[in-house]
């Protein structure tokens, strides 16, 4: 399981909790925003995460932390990309997740420090481009995912990718139970990539109303719109209503309105209009991130044992 990077929400406390619980934790580099003239916060975050995980590994050699990942938004409006690549290479970030554009120089920066790159795609054409440009693996974002989701069935997307690609693939889109994680593996994915469930955790940097809305909502409460960032994505219906808009009659936006420059007003959209995937029916309360990992791990083992029984295998 890989915990997906979440704009604003994924902060070192959450990443550290995810890694200590045994899954890959991640955050978008853009979440580390320092004040004007201050030293890069990304540098401080990476030091904090590495030191805390080293301490954990020394104290728990039998249960070491999983590696962490940093997400780079490779979009022309991300004006600090070059600086962030240098900082991540210097800190030898083990896993680099790239989204919204495949660029050779990002892959080269990752490889220069021994990192691996997983590139986020929503269809087979983008998947082929990403691998051609030097990514090591893929994050296949299928229908139902939180944030900038795709529209394809995970069954179709995984099958098309596995026709030509044998490298690492993480499958994403409404995976919130161990049963769904096992299904992703059965489809040929190496990892399940899980985002929205981690919004409703103590360690997440989200308002308590947002966490509570995740707990109280289900798949029917998710709407698909391009209005808020210029890219199609999934959002909580209740947050759109609270902002005074009609979720069933939203206009479309064009992709030129996307902007990830530092200091942009766009984070505001994410602060009032709340992103979420369709899998949140499985989230019944706000708790520690480690509890989600434990629950999904138990469900995964039980579902695997049940299927092994059906196929005549043993159940351990
Ligand atoms: C609130 C929110 C913010 C997100 N921010 C980012 C981001 O900054 N970068 C990115 O690559 N993906 C982002 N995503 C997408 C997730 O990384 C991931 O693809 C998605 O959450 C997986 O689907 P799930 O939420 O159904 O598990 C975001 C998703 C949500 C719900």
UniProtKB/TrEMBL annotation:
Domain of life, per lineage: Bacteria
Keywords for the protein's UniProt record, in alphabetical order: Flavoprotein, FMN, Monooxygenase, Oxidoreductase
Protein EC: 1.13.12.-
GO molecular function: oxidoreductase activity
Segment forming the signal sequence: none
Keyword Ribonucleoprotein listed: no
Transmembrane annotation, as ranges: none
Enzyme class per UniProt: oxidoreductase
CDD domains (UniProt xref): NPD_like
Family label: Belongs to the nitronate monooxygenase family. NMO class I subfamily.
Descriptive protein name: NAD(P)H-dependent flavin oxidoreductase
